[in-house]
Amino acid sequence: MRRRWRLLIILFLIPLSLFSQDRIFTPGGFIRGGIYFSTGDYEHDVNAAFGDAALTLTASDNLSFKGFADLRVRMGQQFGENVNSLLLREAWGMYYNKFMSISAGKKIIKWGKTDIFTPLSKFNPVDYTLRSPDFEDAELGNLLGEITFTPAPFFKLSAVATPFWNPSILIIKPVSIPSNIQVELPEGLKTGNGFYSYGFRGDFMFKGFAAGLQFYHGPDLMPGLTLVSADFTNPLQPAIKIKGIPYIVSNAGFDFETVISPIVFRGTLSYNHPVEAKEGNEEIPFPQVE
Q1: Domain locations in the chain?
Q2: Which residues pair with 105 in a beta bridge?
Q3: Which residues contact 41 (CB under 8 A, 6 or more apart)?
Q4: What is the model's pTM?
Protein backbone atom coordinates (compact mmCIF):
# COMPACT_ATOMS: atom_id res chain seq x y z
CA MET A 1 0.00 0.00 0.00
CA ARG A 2 2.88 2.35 0.83
CA ARG A 3 4.50 1.68 -2.56
CA ARG A 4 1.20 2.49 -4.27
CA TRP A 5 0.93 5.82 -2.46
CA ARG A 6 4.55 6.67 -3.28
CA LEU A 7 3.99 5.95 -6.98
CA LEU A 8 0.85 8.07 -7.05
CA ILE A 9 2.60 10.96 -5.32
CA ILE A 10 5.57 10.80 -7.72
CA LEU A 11 3.33 10.78 -10.81
CA PHE A 12 1.11 13.52 -9.39
CA LEU A 13 4.18 15.72 -8.88
CA ILE A 14 5.32 15.36 -12.51
CA PRO A 15 3.77 18.74 -13.45
CA LEU A 16 5.66 20.37 -10.58
CA SER A 17 9.07 18.98 -11.40
CA LEU A 18 9.29 19.84 -15.09
CA PHE A 19 9.82 23.57 -14.87
CA SER A 20 12.76 25.69 -13.90
CA GLN A 21 11.31 29.06 -14.97
CA ASP A 22 8.55 31.06 -13.35
CA ARG A 23 5.65 28.75 -12.65
CA ILE A 24 1.93 29.28 -12.50
CA PHE A 25 0.03 26.62 -10.56
CA THR A 26 -3.72 26.31 -10.94
CA PRO A 27 -5.38 23.85 -8.53
CA GLY A 28 -8.91 22.60 -9.07
CA GLY A 29 -11.27 19.74 -8.39
CA PHE A 30 -14.74 18.88 -7.20
CA ILE A 31 -16.75 16.92 -4.66
CA ARG A 32 -20.02 15.28 -5.67
CA GLY A 33 -22.31 12.34 -5.02
CA GLY A 34 -24.61 10.18 -7.09
CA ILE A 35 -27.39 7.64 -6.72
CA TYR A 36 -28.60 5.19 -9.36
CA PHE A 37 -31.78 3.34 -8.48
CA SER A 38 -33.62 0.86 -10.66
CA THR A 39 -37.22 -0.31 -10.26
CA GLY A 40 -36.68 -3.25 -12.63
CA ASP A 41 -36.75 -6.85 -11.47
CA TYR A 42 -33.10 -7.86 -11.91
CA GLU A 43 -31.44 -10.97 -10.52
CA HIS A 44 -28.37 -8.94 -9.52
CA ASP A 45 -28.14 -5.59 -7.75
CA VAL A 46 -27.70 -2.84 -10.37
CA ASN A 47 -28.13 0.09 -7.97
CA ALA A 48 -25.29 2.41 -7.02
CA ALA A 49 -24.60 5.14 -4.45
CA PHE A 50 -21.25 6.88 -4.27
CA GLY A 51 -19.27 9.97 -3.40
CA ASP A 52 -16.51 11.31 -5.67
CA ALA A 53 -13.66 13.72 -5.05
CA ALA A 54 -11.18 15.04 -7.59
CA LEU A 55 -7.98 17.04 -7.15
CA THR A 56 -6.44 18.57 -10.27
CA LEU A 57 -3.33 20.65 -10.75
CA THR A 58 -2.17 22.51 -13.84
CA ALA A 59 1.35 23.93 -13.96
CA SER A 60 2.70 26.18 -16.71
CA ASP A 61 5.23 28.88 -17.45
CA ASN A 62 2.95 30.30 -20.19
CA LEU A 63 5.86 30.01 -22.63
CA SER A 64 6.78 26.47 -23.55
CA PHE A 65 6.01 24.09 -20.68
CA LYS A 66 2.80 22.66 -19.29
CA GLY A 67 1.89 19.86 -16.90
CA PHE A 68 -1.38 18.41 -15.65
CA ALA A 69 -2.41 15.91 -12.98
CA ASP A 70 -5.83 14.54 -11.99
CA LEU A 71 -6.33 12.41 -8.88
CA ARG A 72 -9.73 10.75 -8.19
CA VAL A 73 -11.18 9.16 -5.05
CA ARG A 74 -14.46 7.24 -4.96
CA MET A 75 -16.30 5.63 -2.03
CA GLY A 76 -19.69 3.96 -1.98
CA GLN A 77 -21.41 0.89 -3.33
CA GLN A 78 -21.92 -0.41 -6.86
CA PHE A 79 -23.47 -3.66 -8.14
CA GLY A 80 -23.92 -4.79 -4.54
CA GLU A 81 -20.22 -4.39 -3.68
CA ASN A 82 -18.41 -1.78 -1.63
CA VAL A 83 -16.19 0.58 -3.64
CA ASN A 84 -13.16 2.35 -2.22
CA SER A 85 -10.83 3.41 -5.03
CA LEU A 86 -7.96 5.80 -5.58
CA LEU A 87 -7.09 6.51 -9.22
CA LEU A 88 -4.45 8.68 -10.81
CA ARG A 89 -6.40 9.54 -13.95
CA GLU A 90 -3.76 11.73 -15.62
CA ALA A 91 -0.23 12.94 -14.92
CA TRP A 92 1.76 14.28 -17.84
CA GLY A 93 4.22 16.95 -18.87
CA MET A 94 4.54 18.80 -22.18
CA TYR A 95 7.01 20.97 -24.04
CA TYR A 96 5.54 23.05 -26.86
CA ASN A 97 6.19 25.87 -29.29
CA LYS A 98 4.40 27.25 -32.35
CA PHE A 99 5.52 24.39 -34.57
CA MET A 100 5.44 21.29 -32.36
CA SER A 101 4.69 19.76 -28.97
CA ILE A 102 6.07 16.73 -27.10
CA SER A 103 4.27 15.19 -24.13
CA ALA A 104 4.73 12.06 -22.01
CA GLY A 105 3.06 10.46 -19.01
CA LYS A 106 -0.37 9.09 -18.23
CA LYS A 107 -2.68 10.96 -20.55
CA ILE A 108 -6.16 10.79 -22.06
CA ILE A 109 -6.00 11.15 -25.85
CA LYS A 110 -9.27 11.06 -27.77
CA TRP A 111 -9.14 10.73 -31.53
CA GLY A 112 -12.31 11.34 -33.52
CA LYS A 113 -14.82 14.14 -33.86
CA THR A 114 -18.04 12.36 -32.83
CA ASP A 115 -19.37 12.68 -29.27
CA ILE A 116 -19.64 9.97 -26.56
CA PHE A 117 -18.54 7.10 -28.82
CA THR A 118 -16.20 6.82 -31.79
CA PRO A 119 -14.48 3.72 -33.24
CA LEU A 120 -11.39 5.87 -33.91
CA SER A 121 -10.41 6.50 -30.27
CA LYS A 122 -7.88 3.68 -30.01
CA PHE A 123 -5.68 5.12 -27.23
CA ASN A 124 -8.50 5.83 -24.77
CA PRO A 125 -9.67 2.77 -22.76
CA VAL A 126 -13.00 3.05 -20.96
CA ASP A 127 -14.30 1.59 -17.69
CA TYR A 128 -17.82 0.53 -18.68
CA THR A 129 -18.63 -0.45 -15.09
CA LEU A 130 -18.25 3.10 -13.77
CA ARG A 131 -21.49 4.88 -12.87
CA SER A 132 -21.24 8.66 -13.26
CA PRO A 133 -23.33 11.57 -14.56
CA ASP A 134 -20.34 12.55 -16.73
CA PHE A 135 -19.46 10.01 -19.46
CA GLU A 136 -15.85 11.26 -19.56
CA ASP A 137 -15.26 10.02 -16.00
CA ALA A 138 -15.10 6.47 -17.37
CA GLU A 139 -12.01 7.27 -19.49
CA LEU A 140 -8.89 5.63 -18.05
CA GLY A 141 -5.99 7.14 -19.96
CA ASN A 142 -2.74 5.38 -20.82
CA LEU A 143 1.01 5.71 -20.27
CA LEU A 144 2.23 7.04 -23.61
CA GLY A 145 4.22 9.57 -25.56
CA GLU A 146 2.79 12.00 -28.10
CA ILE A 147 4.38 14.37 -30.59
CA THR A 148 2.46 16.82 -32.76
CA PHE A 149 3.53 19.05 -35.64
CA THR A 150 1.62 22.08 -36.93
CA PRO A 151 3.39 23.10 -40.17
CA ALA A 152 0.42 25.25 -41.25
CA PRO A 153 -2.59 26.80 -39.49
CA PHE A 154 -4.92 24.40 -41.30
CA PHE A 155 -2.99 21.16 -40.70
CA LYS A 156 -1.81 19.18 -37.65
CA LEU A 157 0.02 15.86 -37.62
CA SER A 158 0.05 13.68 -34.47
CA ALA A 159 2.03 10.54 -33.60
CA VAL A 160 1.34 8.49 -30.46
CA ALA A 161 3.06 5.38 -29.07
CA THR A 162 2.73 3.31 -25.90
CA PRO A 163 4.58 0.14 -24.77
CA PHE A 164 1.58 -1.06 -22.71
CA TRP A 165 -1.86 -2.55 -23.29
CA ASN A 166 -4.46 -0.92 -21.06
CA PRO A 167 -7.74 -2.68 -21.96
CA SER A 168 -11.22 -1.32 -21.46
CA ILE A 169 -13.10 -2.81 -18.49
CA LEU A 170 -16.16 -4.75 -19.60
CA ILE A 171 -19.39 -4.74 -17.60
CA ILE A 172 -20.28 -8.32 -16.65
CA LYS A 173 -20.99 -8.12 -12.91
CA PRO A 174 -24.76 -7.49 -13.21
CA VAL A 175 -25.07 -10.11 -15.98
CA SER A 176 -26.45 -13.51 -15.05
CA ILE A 177 -23.68 -16.07 -15.65
CA PRO A 178 -24.15 -19.74 -14.68
CA SER A 179 -22.08 -20.77 -11.67
CA ASN A 180 -20.17 -23.37 -13.71
CA ILE A 181 -18.77 -20.68 -16.05
CA GLN A 182 -15.81 -18.60 -14.90
CA VAL A 183 -14.91 -15.43 -16.80
CA GLU A 184 -11.55 -13.71 -16.17
CA LEU A 185 -11.13 -10.24 -17.67
CA PRO A 186 -7.91 -8.17 -17.72
CA GLU A 187 -7.64 -4.81 -15.95
CA GLY A 188 -4.80 -2.29 -15.72
CA LEU A 189 -1.55 -1.89 -17.62
CA LYS A 190 -0.31 -5.08 -19.27
CA THR A 191 3.12 -5.75 -20.71
CA GLY A 192 4.22 -8.41 -23.13
CA ASN A 193 5.51 -9.17 -26.58
CA GLY A 194 3.37 -7.31 -29.11
CA PHE A 195 1.46 -5.27 -26.50
CA TYR A 196 2.90 -2.00 -27.80
CA SER A 197 0.82 0.24 -30.06
CA TYR A 198 1.35 3.28 -32.26
CA GLY A 199 -0.73 5.54 -34.44
CA PHE A 200 -0.66 8.57 -36.73
CA ARG A 201 -3.37 11.14 -37.37
CA GLY A 202 -3.61 14.13 -39.66
CA ASP A 203 -6.18 16.85 -38.98
CA PHE A 204 -7.28 19.36 -41.62
CA MET A 205 -9.08 22.49 -40.40
CA PHE A 206 -10.77 24.94 -42.74
CA LYS A 207 -13.49 27.51 -42.25
CA GLY A 208 -16.73 25.63 -41.67
CA PHE A 209 -15.16 22.22 -42.33
CA ALA A 210 -12.71 19.90 -40.55
CA ALA A 211 -11.57 16.37 -41.34
CA GLY A 212 -9.12 13.77 -40.08
CA LEU A 213 -7.27 10.73 -41.43
CA GLN A 214 -5.61 8.21 -39.12
CA PHE A 215 -3.90 4.83 -38.78
CA TYR A 216 -3.50 2.65 -35.67
CA HIS A 217 -1.62 -0.59 -35.07
CA GLY A 218 -1.66 -2.49 -31.78
CA PRO A 219 -3.91 -4.48 -29.44
CA ASP A 220 -7.59 -3.58 -29.58
CA LEU A 221 -8.92 -1.93 -26.43
CA MET A 222 -11.68 -4.54 -26.18
CA PRO A 223 -10.21 -7.90 -25.06
CA GLY A 224 -11.08 -11.01 -27.03
CA LEU A 225 -12.68 -13.94 -25.19
CA THR A 226 -11.01 -17.33 -25.51
CA LEU A 227 -11.81 -20.73 -24.02
CA VAL A 228 -9.11 -21.72 -21.52
CA SER A 229 -10.51 -25.03 -20.32
CA ALA A 230 -13.68 -27.14 -20.33
CA ASP A 231 -14.16 -29.99 -17.86
CA PHE A 232 -17.04 -32.34 -18.79
CA THR A 233 -16.73 -34.60 -15.76
CA ASN A 234 -20.29 -33.50 -14.99
CA PRO A 235 -21.89 -33.33 -18.46
CA LEU A 236 -24.93 -31.51 -17.08
CA GLN A 237 -22.79 -28.71 -15.63
CA PRO A 238 -19.38 -28.68 -17.33
CA ALA A 239 -16.76 -26.43 -15.68
CA ILE A 240 -15.87 -23.81 -18.28
CA LYS A 241 -13.18 -21.12 -17.95
CA ILE A 242 -13.07 -18.14 -20.30
CA LYS A 243 -10.35 -15.49 -20.35
CA GLY A 244 -10.01 -12.08 -21.97
CA ILE A 245 -6.81 -11.72 -24.01
CA PRO A 246 -5.43 -9.12 -26.44
CA TYR A 247 -5.49 -9.40 -30.21
CA ILE A 248 -3.61 -7.14 -32.62
CA VAL A 249 -5.44 -4.99 -35.16
CA SER A 250 -4.63 -2.49 -37.86
CA ASN A 251 -7.21 0.27 -38.08
CA ALA A 252 -7.69 3.02 -40.64
CA GLY A 253 -10.24 5.78 -40.22
CA PHE A 254 -11.67 8.99 -41.57
CA ASP A 255 -13.98 11.52 -39.93
CA PHE A 256 -15.32 14.98 -40.68
CA GLU A 257 -17.28 17.84 -39.17
CA THR A 258 -19.05 20.61 -41.05
CA VAL A 259 -21.49 23.34 -40.17
CA ILE A 260 -24.53 24.16 -42.26
CA SER A 261 -26.15 26.77 -40.08
CA PRO A 262 -27.66 26.04 -37.66
CA ILE A 263 -26.90 22.30 -37.96
CA VAL A 264 -23.58 20.55 -37.30
CA PHE A 265 -22.94 17.39 -39.32
CA ARG A 266 -20.40 14.82 -38.15
CA GLY A 267 -19.45 11.49 -39.66
CA THR A 268 -16.96 8.66 -39.12
CA LEU A 269 -15.74 5.74 -41.21
CA SER A 270 -13.52 3.05 -39.70
CA TYR A 271 -12.01 -0.20 -41.02
CA ASN A 272 -10.72 -2.62 -38.36
CA HIS A 273 -8.61 -5.55 -39.58
CA PRO A 274 -7.20 -8.16 -37.14
CA VAL A 275 -3.60 -9.08 -37.96
CA GLU A 276 -4.06 -12.80 -37.24
CA ALA A 277 -6.52 -15.01 -39.09
CA LYS A 278 -9.94 -15.71 -37.61
CA GLU A 279 -9.73 -19.44 -38.33
CA GLY A 280 -8.77 -21.36 -35.19
CA ASN A 281 -8.80 -18.23 -32.99
CA GLU A 282 -12.19 -17.73 -31.39
CA GLU A 283 -11.04 -14.55 -29.62
CA ILE A 284 -10.34 -12.75 -32.90
CA PRO A 285 -13.30 -11.05 -34.61
CA PHE A 286 -13.86 -10.74 -38.34
CA PRO A 287 -12.69 -7.60 -40.15
CA GLN A 288 -15.34 -4.95 -39.80
CA VAL A 289 -16.38 -1.59 -41.19
CA GLU A 290 -18.11 0.97 -38.96
Answers
A1: 1-99, 108-290
A2: 92, 144
A3: none
A4: 0.84
